[in-house]
Write a structure and sequence with these properties.
This protein is an alpha/beta fold. The protein contains nine helices and ten strands. The structure holds adenosine-5'-diphosphate and magnesium ion (MG). InterPro entries: AAA+_ATPase, ABC_AA/LPS_Transport, ABC_transporter-like_ATP-bd, BCA_ABC_TP_C, P-loop_NTPase.
């Protein structure tokens, strides 16, 4: 495991929207190097939780710590700079740009000089750009996107676009990777491929992965620990086998 990966601690996080408690004093801990899943039926608060962790929403109360850093009041770019990279439930790529250019944009937070706008005039900027290009190609190969590097993202099948999104998040060299419903809308084969890829990321990079997912089967195969939300409340937390057999979880999922 990468020794620089800190623990993520979510404590008593409440998020209120007008007239609605989307998260009600939710807490959990993502252990360094683990795959932690947050699951629950539609409307449970999964995306809200994700948006709080990545700084898109501000918690009404509670705290989120990543190692020594308190994230609660930080804007998204500061949270990303601490090494927390996310994907979106709906694809957020630039469809007319190539896979390579989308991945280069993912490296933006790591660039000192802003090499794209500097027009590559300085030798140091050119060397830096070459390093980034090399790393982008490595990550593309890891994710299985080498053949598509020059293709516009918008022309690729949905399952491949989701892989580009994952690759772009990896281009930020995260210490915690946050995936919002990575297999939503995918067919069986694409789901299996994505699951294998997530396992490969965890095993070869040693980073933590926080997975928000509706698909129970996927979570049971991948996760070391699972937090279950229902109507904004945490109804279970623990290893997948225990959570899967919890009567309250079964009730929430069956809607009984
Ligand atoms: P999930 O991702 O588990 O399906 P969400 O976190 O998207 O659930 O939503 C949880 C609840 O919060 C839902 O009732 C949803 O309608 C509400 N909600 C989410 N975002 C907002 C928002 N920006 N404004 C008002 N209500 C919201
Ligand atoms: Mg959601």
């Amino acid at each position: 495991m990468d020794p620089s990966v800190p623990k993520l601690e979510v404590r008593d996080v409440t998020v209120r929207f007008a007239g609605l408690v989307a998260l009600d004093a939710v807490g959990f801990t993502v252990e360094p190097g683990s795959v932690h899943a947050v699951i629950g039926p539609n409307g449970a608060g999964k995306s809200t939780c994700f948006n709080v962790l990545s700084g898109v929403y501000r918690a009404t109360s509670g705290s989120v710590r990543f190692g020594d850093a308190e994230l609660t009041a930080l804007p998204p770019h500061r949270i990303a700079a601490l090494g927390m990279a996310r994907t979106f439930q709906n694809i957020a790529l630039s469809p007319r740009l190539s896979v390579r250019d989308n991945l280069m944009l993912g490296r933006h937070r790591l660039t000192r000089a802003g090499f794209v706008s500097a027009g590559l005039r300085l030798p140091s900027a050119r060397r830096e750009a070459a390093r980034h290009t090399e790393r982008v190609e490595e990550i593309a190969a890891f994710v299985g996107l080498t053949p598509q590097l020059a293709m516009p993202v918008g022309l690729l099948p949905y399952g491949v676009q989701k892989r580009v999104e994952l690759a772009r998040a990896l281009c930020m060299e995260p210490r915690l990777l946050m995936l919002d419903e990575p297999v939503a809308g995918m067919n069986g084969g694409e789901r299996r491929e994505m699951a294998e890829l997530i396992i490969a990321v965890r095993e070869s990079l040693g980073i933590s992965i926080l997975l928000v997912e509706h698909d129970m089967g996927m979570v049971m195969r991948l996760a070391d620990a699972v937090t279950v939300l229902d109507f904004g409340r945490r109804i279970a937390d623990g290893p997948p086998e225990a959570v899967q057999n919890d009567p309250e979880v079964i009730r929430a999922y069956l809607g009984a």
